[in-house]
Design goal:
The chain is mainly alpha-helical. Helices cover about 75% and strands about 0% of the residues. The chain starts with 13 loop residues before the first helix and ends with a helix.
Length: about 180
Amino acid sequence: MTFLAHVEAGAASGFLSGLSHPVSGLDHVIAMVAVGLWGAQLGKPAVWVLPVAFPIAMALGGMMGLMGIPLPGVEVGIAASAMVLGVMVVAAARPPLWVAAVIVGLFALFHGHAHGTELPAGANGTLYSIGFVIATGLLHAVGIAIGLIHRYDWGRPTLRGAGALVAAGGVFFLWQALA
């Protein structure tokens, strides 16, 4: 596993490539897990709204990347996603559901754009996209499963500690993206 998941543009193709891409870099893994952590911490309906909002916005970002529509600062946006989502978990932030969905969706655009720009011309974008959406959903599910510890007295500080690790990872990824 590398720290940053993004391969060179044009190096991705097909279902298996899409399925493996989100787990190929720790930057994606912790951001996807953090969506699930925060959703579980917020409870219903956020526990399912955030993991649904993310792939919808990610698909839009992916289409932008496939169409060659530029999105400045993609790697910075991905690093910021881990930092902000981690801070939301640490703070046990409880914004209105629509605000949480907008935060998650905004960062999903960056993740999706990175996916979309990696698909070479002529490759099967549909299969690749299905693969990365499934893998993203599975990572959200892992975050939700871990996040359920907030139900226990000992789990709330543990979950906040996990959020701190995610935020620290985001700072590291930002440093890597800017280096």
